[in-house]
């Protein structure tokens, strides 16, 4: 009954607030205490009892009352932080205020007129409400709120275990408390693992939800990459003003990376015991990625600009702990047991991918550790699993992008390509053809599946997928026959005249594939008899490319075919083969699934910069060359950029805006197709293979492969070209993409309570599939 009474009293207070036309004095404690005095209202209750329409009505009709409510709630949090929350009543007041602010803040942020409210000082609101001399140095409300949350996250017997035998700590102890001794979990910079405490975990979740809500002002500003958009909430919280910034960053990181959702290896244990740690881990991951989202140019914060991740995490043990933790959690959805649904599946893999990206991007030492470690493959396999699983689902296009961006970042380093030669033996059930081979085979087979059977909105990613394959190709020692056939199938599909002529940049895909073949023939010929055999079998594709028609009637005929063939790529000619046992086909999104819109990603020329591999293995960055020299660069042919703009000029667009290719445009890139190496290989090997087949009456593939394995092209091929790597380079376009993606994930994943649902978000649109 008490619970029902307290809800009724709380609801009455809300109604009073919305119906009062006169401002209520800040000193009227009897009125304001109704909002936090009763203790039985959960966060779900607060969301149900404070409807959106009523918050907006107070905001419009009695703004001073809404301002006072916020101010009084922040004041209570500050008092709780200063006193140390010793009594149960104080703890409940802090939680009630925290829930109320979590409910109200998004409605403050959605109104541009209120946006400065938290950054102003409240008259008479010096630290103790003492009067005018304190107004001079009063903190803005936002700063008081953030510092109170930080203090409360390290409050003994509330959010951390007390180190004292006696519970009578003085208030001074709270201010002298060294939060580095109260880090929540063992791991980076902390060896002691505190006893798990359900109540502390739940209190942390409530405060982290409020912190995340404070940071979410970014959702109410439209995407603008040029603005540099620093988030003042994040910036202040991560600054030296907050003495808990580093211990909290470490606590969040350790909490995420130490989490083991499988538990004690007992099947179905997640059905028997509720896992109270998971909500905390999810919240920790979300707060972590938001604090790591900044523009380094404008950030002076010690926690996020790489120096923290540098100081908090800078030795091999720390790196190993973080890498193992992220790899273990990413691999969790792949865990297969003989008992269906017997292991718990986590849902926060998108936050983990953003976290991994941020750590690699900010901390180059960590990135090099990842690439040096064979554990990088434990990150690769789950990413390929997610990419393959999400390829038909329009609501997961953001997941597809971040997975590809991570692989693009890793592929810029030689070690990644070398690691891919490790045999792939873990049989994760995936809807891909069965093959025997290496992790490189897995990568290419999954990419082929995405390109040939993903949905249309993935087409902008094709350049990225093939750039990754180009980057690793000089290091791939032996591709399987299945993989070799997939690569040739892609070339066949991309080099049809109707596909080449149907868009201004489609021919880039052919250039990328030819570059893959050239790299493997020049640098890894010996182990790649499967690929050489596949090239010989499909030699007609290369001859057709060399003799590509450029006359207007042929162009017209190709475009007519395009209108009859709406699907750009099909599985025909790809010899699909049976899928892995236990796999399920990639499913489209359920109708009505919510998704958030994303800003466009920059083209591959903006995403990457070209580097040349020197003989000693070091990378030398290549300056973009002036227009006239681009023709001499064996790779410029496939690059967007200046050449591409020149090609646009050579073609013409019709009145309807539809792309129309011209003879000059086709000639401008056809002459640069890098076919010399492959043509030379065919010229030497085709007569030899034909002769063997006739002489020995061979029809058996294995005999021909044996011959090719022992063959050599030393001295017969053109001089090997330098290896060119396209390394990911940070830019404002991708920074903005990550920001919209990250907040979109956070928006959609916070449904209980639905913190931002139905508010006027500007960073992205909420759409239904």
Automatic annotation (TrEMBL):
Chain spans, region Disordered: 553-641
Pfam families in the cross-refs: Hid1
Gene Ontology CC terms, in alphabetical order: Golgi medial cisterna; Golgi trans cisterna; membrane
Composition-biased stretches (Polar residues): 571-581
Highest taxon above the source species: Eukaryota
Secretion signal span: none
Protein name listed in UniProt: Protein HID1 isoform X4
Species assigned in the record: Octodon degus
Name of the gene this protein is made from: Hid1
